[in-house]
Structures are given as C-alpha cells and as structure tokens.
From TrEMBL:
A GO CC annotation given for this chain: cytosol
Domain (Tyrosine specific protein phosphatases) ranges: 123-174
Keyword Hydrolase in record: yes
GO biological process, one term: negative regulation of MAPK cascade
Transmembrane segments: none
Domain Rhodanese per the UniProt entry, residue ranges: 20-91
GO MF term list: MAP kinase tyrosine phosphatase activity; MAP kinase tyrosine/serine/threonine phosphatase activity; protein tyrosine/threonine phosphatase activity
Homology family: Belongs to the protein-tyrosine phosphatase family. Non-receptor class dual specificity subfamily.
Protein name: Dual specificity phosphatase 7
Residues covered by the Tyrosine-protein phosphatase domain: 43-193
Cited InterPro entries: Dual-sp_phosphatase_cat-dom, Prot-tyrosine_phosphatase-like, Rhodanese-like_dom, Rhodanese-like_dom_sf, Tyr_Pase_dom, TYR_PHOSPHATASE_DUAL_dom
Lineage, broadest ranks: Eukaryota, Metazoa, Chordata, Craniata, Vertebrata
Keywords: Hydrolase, Protein phosphatase
Length: 226
C-alpha cells in the first residue's frame, strides 16, 4: 500500500468539512496538552500514555480504550468502520506499511487499516514536497510573525527567545502584540521549552527561509546559515 493512497491532503479535508455533510472521523495523535491547546474542530484525542504504549504495540488493547472521553469513545466505536478516518500529528511527513511503525500515528494507522477501516493520515504537503509556504498578514509584523515563531518552537524545539531572535534576524521590524506574546509564552510551557539556550534540532532535515534583499527579491537561506 503506497503513501499516496494512505494520505489525504489539507485541501481535500477542507472541502469535506465545508460540505457540512462529511463522513470524516478526525483523530488527533498529538500529546494531550497540544490537543487541549488547539485542535481541528471535531477531532478526537487519541494520545497514548507512555505506560499504555508498550501494551498497545503488542496488540493487547483496542484503540477505543485509549480515548478518555466517554462521548468520544462512543463516537469512535460507532463511526470507525463506516466513516473515512483521518489521523494527524505534528511531525508525520509520509507513511509506509512496510516495516514497523515509528510513531503513534503510524501505530494507529496500521491498526485501523488492519481492522478494515478506511484510514488515512493528513499529509504535510509543504514538507513532503520540500516547497516553501508563504505566511502573511496585513502588515507582516504581528500575526504572521506569531504563527512563524510558534511553528519554529514546535517543529525545531526552539525556545521562544531562540525562535523570536531567529525571525528577527530575518526580518528586523517584527512586533507581535502583547496578547500574542502571552499566547506564545503559554505555548512554550505547553511544549516544555523553558530554557533560553539554543535548542535547535540536530536532525538532518533542512528547513528553508527567505530573507528580503530588497522590495522584490528574496534570498533563500537554510537555518544552519544563520
């Protein structure tokens, strides 16, 4: 089974949700703290506590037992065999059914598909295709900056100070408002990133950012070039 058939795009999901009559069951595979911070409307949290993860890998417990909310558990049991199940997390770029799953999303996806469910994962298209994403707002100094800083914090395990300093080196006139900065501080605590030191990822994946050289030309940089 290929990655293409296992994935669904964000555009596909948006169309399904906007239709108002969608039969899509969304499963959020991130840590419960991230789910509580923000999630796609209607998604069910399926975070697996560490003590249960080993038992789940051995196939000793069904998926519904890891859903804490009774109403969500009933919804999952009722819909998982009939609806299109879409799983998402903060890190999965691709998935393959060859070899053991390496993430909670992979474990759940494999289990659901083995059980005959129409299960897919939500593809991070920009990262899987190694293309850029334009993040913008009206002035380009507050809302778009907040989103970019939050992404760097979550994706690269950067503290708020490190992520903010990195963006400021790329765009010197950034100025998120106090409310957004407060939300970023809360997000930092949720991620467990309290250290002011440089916590950048040591993985091999390259992320690229654009540095304005004048009003119309942008220079492509990697994080390591800063």
């Amino acid at each position: 089974m290929s990655d293409v058939t296992a994935s669904k795009s964000v555009e596909w999901l948006q169309v399904e949700l906007d239709s108002g009559a969608s039969s899509v069951l969304l499963l959020d595979c991130r840590a419960h703290e991230l789910y509580e911070s923000s999630h796609i409307e209607g998604a069910i949290s399926v975070a697996i506590p560490g003590l249960m993860l080993r038992r789940f890998k051995k196939g000793n417990i069904p998926i519904r037992t890891i859903i804490p909310n009774h109403e969500d558990k009933e919804s999952f049991t009722r819909r998982c065999q009939t609806d299109t199940v879409v799983l998402y997390d903060e890190s999965t770029v691709s998935w393959s059914d060859s070899g053991p799953p390496s993430s909670v999303l992979g474990l759940l996806l494999q289990k659901l598909r083995d059980d005959g469910c129409k299960a897919h994962y939500l593809e991070d298209e920009a990262r899987s295709k190694q293309c850029g994403v334009l993040v913008h707002c009206l002035a380009g100094i507050s809302r778009s900056v907040t989103v970019t800083v939050a992404y760097l914090m979550q994706r690269l395990n950067l503290s708020l100070n490190d992520a903010y300093d990195f963006v400021k080196r790329k765009k010197s006139n950034i100025s998120p408002n106090f409310n957004f900065m407060g939300q970023l501080l809360d997000f930092e605590r949720t991620l467990g990133l309290h250290s002011p030191c440089d916590n950048r990822s040591t993985g091999e994946e390259q992320l690229f950012f654009t540095t304005p050289t004048n009003h119309n030309v942008f220079q492509l940089d990697t994080l390591d070039s800063t």
